[in-house]
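Before we proceed, please read the two lines closing this message. Let me know whether the C-alpha cells fit the sequence:

…
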Amino acid sequence: MNRRIGMAPFVLSLFLAIVAAAQELPSVKPESVGLSSERLERIGSVVQRHIADKRIAGAVTLVARRGHVAWFKAQGMADREAGKSMAPDSMFRICSMTKPITSLAVMMLYEEGYFLLDDPISKYLPEFKNPKVLVKPASGEAYTIPAAREITIRDLLRHTSGITYHWNSDLGPMYKNANVAHGLLPYDGTIEDSVKRLAALPLLFSPGDKWEYSLSVDVLGRFVEVVSGKPLDEFFRTRIFEPLGMKDTYFFPPENKLNRLATAYTYYADKGLSRFPDTPITEGSFTYSADYPEHGPKKLFSGGAGLVSTAMDYLRFCQMMLDGGKVGATRLVSRKSVELMTGDQLGMIKSDFGFGLGFGISGVKAPLSELGSAGEYNWGGFFYTAFTIDPKEQMIVIFMAQLHPTGDLTLDREVHALAYQAIND
C-alpha cells in the first residue's frame, strides 16, 4: 500500500506531462494552411525594425491557422542590459489577457448549474447589496444615490457594472485611499480583501447604463472562489491550465522559472526606451510596477490582471476557444457557451466596439478599420501583449512584448495586419 501511494505523485506527473505534450500544436509549412511563408516574413522584418529603432526591446510573435503553428518567432532582447536574448518560451506579464481566462472559469461554473448570468452578484457576494452611484454636481459636494438596479454577473463579464479602474478621475482616488487592488502592484492582501473594499465604494453609473473598462473581472475572480470553494489559482491550475497543458502560466511563477520573465521597459518621447524603474510609476491616482510577479506577499490572485504566461501557453487557451470549448477529447465548456462569450453582449449600450463575455469583438458595431474578419474576438494587456481569435479564418495571432507606456507605437496592430496579408488560399 505504501509503495503504491509513493508512486502516485510520479504517475500524476507522468500523466500531466503526456497531457501537456498532447496539447502541443504542430508547426507546419505555412503554405499547408493557406499562408505565404514569404509574406509572413514581413512580421519579422517589421518587428526587427522597431527593435533597431529602439522602440521596443524584443517580442515574440505567433500565427496559427487550422490548428497548426505557421509562424513563431522570438526577436530582440528579453533583458537588454543583461544581453539576454528573447526566447520562444520567455514569460510575459499578460495583465488584462487574464480576463478572458477568468471569464472562462465563470462560464465553466455557469454550465455546472450554480447560477444564471442575470443573477445579482450580491446573491453570492453580499457586500454588493444595495449599490450606490456617485453624483458630482457642478458645484458643491459629491453625494450618492441608490443605483437603478443591482450588478449582475453578466454586467461584470461585459463591463457594464458601474465599477471602473484607478485611473478614473472621479472614483480612482477613492479606490486608492480604500486600498483596492488592481493587480499591477505587490499587495498585502487577498482578492477577498480587495473586493470587499471595492464593494463599499460607490459606482460610476447604474449597472447596465454604459460600458466602462473596470475591476469587474477581479470581482469575478472572487466570485469563482466563493462558488467553487477553491482559491482562484487552484481553480485555474486544476480546471484550466492542466487540462490545456498550460505549464508556464501562473500568478506568481516559481523561483526556477523567474529567469524566463522578460524585462519590462518604458518609452517616453523625451527619454526613449528605458528599463522599467525599480520604484513604481504614478499617473494621477494610478500607481503601477513591474515587479509584482516576483516580489511582495504573493497573496493576491487578480482575476483581471495578475497572470504571467508564454505565447505558446496562451495559444493553447486560444485554440480551445477556437475549437468550441474543447481540447482533444477534453471539453471545458460547450460550443454554445463559446458562442455566447464571443457574440456582442452590449446591444444598444453605447460603445465603439462590440464586447462579449470577456472578449472584445471586431466588426460588429462598426466596419473593420484594418485587415481582419468581422466577428474576430480579441483583447490585450497593459504591458503590451495582444491576441486575436478568428473563427472565420480559423486563425490565431499572438503578440507578446513588455512595454508601458508605449508612446505612439502600433506594432501590435501592425503584426495583426501582417498576419492577415499573408493569407494565400
Summary: The first strand starts at residue 58 and ends at 65. DSSP finds eleven helices and 18 strands in the chain.
